[in-house]
Each structure stands twice: as C-alpha cells, then as structure tokens.
Design brief:
single chain, 349 residues, Farnesyl Diphosphate Synthase, two-stranded antiparallel ribbon, two-stranded antiparallel sheet, 16 helices, 70% helix, globular
C-alpha cells in the first residue's frame, strides 16, 4: 500500500526536524518553565512540562521547505534551520490565535493559554517568534541568509496583518468574498509561499523560476485554508484536533458561510444576519442552512480552482518531473483532493 506523500516526507526528515527544533528550544537554559511551555506547544512536553511525544500537527510547512531544497539537487538538511523557523513561526501564530479565538484545545490537548493563562500564553508566542527569527538566520551563505531573513520578516508581517483582518471581520456586519480571500492570502498563504520559495532559494534556484514556485505555494496556501474552513464546520474532532463546529460557535465568517449568505433569501437571510451580528443563534440551524444552500459543494469548487492555479504555477517552475509530481501529491493531500488521470488537473468528486 502506497504511503501518503506527507508520511513519506515525515519518515525521511521527521527525526532530523524534531532534533533541530528541540535544539533551538533548549534556549533559554536558565528559564526551564518558559522553555517548557514552548516545548509543550510543539508537542515535546506534557502539562507538567515533563518530556513526552504528543501530537504536533502535520508539519507540512517545514517539510515543503525541505522538499523544495531537495528538488534543486541539494540535501534537504541544508534548509533545516529555515524549516525550523517556519514551524516556530507557525506555532507562534497558533498560540496567539488560540488566545484571540478563546479556543480551549488544539491537537487534542489544552491550549497554552488555557493551562497557564493569557499573559504567559502571549509570552510563549513571543518567545517562539524570537527563536524563529534567530533560526532563519542560521544559513551558512551570508547573501542567502540576508535574502531569506528579509523575506521571513516580510512574511511574518503579512501573517500578522492577515490575523488583524480576520479579527476585524468579527465586528463587521458583512464581509465580501474578495476581502476574505485577501485575508487568507496573508494569514495562511504567505507562509506556505515562503516555505517553498526559501527551500528553493537555499537550494540555488534561478531567480527566473523562484517566483513561480512562490506562486505555487501561495495558491496552495489559499486552497489549503479554504479546505480547512470546510473541515472547521464539517470535520470531526479526530480530523481537526479541535472541538467540532468551533468556527460556527465563534461566528467566524469563513468561506462556506459567506457563499451561503450570498444566495440566502427570506428566513435564511435573517439567520445569517443574526450570525454575522454575533447574536445568539441556533448553530444546528446554521449548519442545516449551509447544507441546504450547498455551501460545502460550492466551497469545494473554490478549493479546486485555487489548486489548479497552484499546479499551473508549479508546471512553470522548471523543476524536474519527479519533484513536480511529489509537490503535486502533497498539494492533493493537503487540500483533500484526488488527482485526476491527466496531469495538472484535479477532481474532488
């Protein structure tokens, strides 16, 4: 039986990635509780801060970075510190996001703020960001280190801007679909784009092709986030690691909701008006309305469209066919799509 692309990457790089992440998390040595809380977020400590191995997420972002470097004929290990910086930055955003969304659990465990309070949760997130900023500069070639470090800081700024927009949507009575896509292109897609771009940059890819690979990552990031929106409403706790329906309880204006609201009329329209206003609303009624208005199917179509854009950019990247196929397979897996027989197309039906 063929293993999943991500499982294959994890088997090849997982132990090295774990070891390097833990190396960076060994600092600061004089503050074991602080470092322990950061290790808890990454799955290396339990609630008493004792060593453990807990769920740590897909880690597809650092794996994409390593795969992109490998695709240039280099050893993936050359991008290992950059891959670590990506994972630390991602977890910085998760710790703060959990506080802002009041999420009590992540990856089947209590969130950092739920265990140690919001102030320490903020500190843990800030510590992860600081370590990520150090790790990304640990590149042997000075010119490459400056270029990748600059792109990393720009990515981090886009990520936080995306989170700002996401939170600002919560107090608005309406959000346009284009505004939503712009928000996730910053909050989620910018980091995925950086992952593949940085791995290829460290691997020595020609500047003429780097933009295509970044575009692949950005389109993939948009498709992935929209697929995540679907799972946030219809996915199980086993699939998401969070309580089912968390996005609906938080009245999140995710794409399935926006698409359904666009075609709602009469009573359905009033249901979404109450939802957007953050009023007490029957969540079973909202989910039932989403189903009746074909919100899931419409959203899956948008996932497919963005994935097709990603694969088109990948075909222009100049990579060898083997690595194009590998990156395609990862993209299919991340977005819940099934590859069609013809190359470069997708089908989720």
């Amino acid at each position: 039986m063929r293993t999943s692309p991500l499982a294959d990457l994890q088997s090849r790089y997982g132990s090295q990635l774990d070891a390097r992440i833990q190396k960076w998390l060994a600092w600061p040595e004089d503050s074991s509780d602080f470092a322990g809380m950061m290790r808890y977020q990454l799955g290396y400590a339990d609630e008493t801060l004792k060593p453990t191995l807990a769920p740590s997420g897909k880690r597809f972002r650092p794996l994409l970075c390593l795969l992109a470097c490998e695709a240039l004929g280099c050893r993936g290990e050359q991008a290992l510190d950059t891959a670590v910086s990506v994972e630390l930055l991602h977890n910085f955003s998760l710790v703060h996001d959990d506080i802002q969304d009041r999420d009590p659990s992540r990856r089947h465990r209590p969130t950092v703020w739920k265990l140690w309070g919001e102030p320490q949760g903020i500190n843990v997130g800030d510590g992860l960001f600081a370590l990520a900023s150090r790790a990304v500069m640990a590149i042997a070639d000075a010119e490459t280190a400056v270029a990748v470090g600059k792109a990393f800081q720009e990515t981090a700024l886009l990520l936080t801007l995306g989170q700002f927009l996401d939170m600002s949507f919560e107090s608005r009575a309406s959000v346009a679909i284009d505004e939503y896509i712009d928000m996730i292109s910053r909050k989620t897609a910018a980091l995925v784009g950086f992952c593949v771009w940085s791995g290829a940059r460290i691997g020595g890819m020609d500047e003429a092709f780097l933009g295509h690979l970044r575009d692949f990552g950005r389109w993939l990031g948009i498709a992935y986030q929209i697929h995540d929106d679907i799972m946030g409403i219809w996915g199980s706790a086993e699939e998401t690691g969070k309580l089912p329906g968390t996005d609906l309880r938080n009245c999140k204006k995710t794409l399935p909701v926006l698409l359904a609201a666009q075609r709602a009329r009469g009573g359905d329209e009033r249901t979404f008006e109450a939802y957007f206003a953050g009023a007490a609303v029957d969540l079973d009624l909202v989910r039932e309305t989403l189903d009746r208005l074909d919100a899931r199917s419409d959203t899956e179509d948008v996932v497919e469209t963005n994935l097709e854009s990603a694969l088109s950019a990948l075909q222009r990247s100049g990579l060898d066919g083997e690595f194009i196929e590998n990156l395609q397979s990862v993209a299919f897996e991340l977005t819940g799509q099934a590859p069609a027989k013809s190359s470069g197309t997708v089908s989720n039906r």
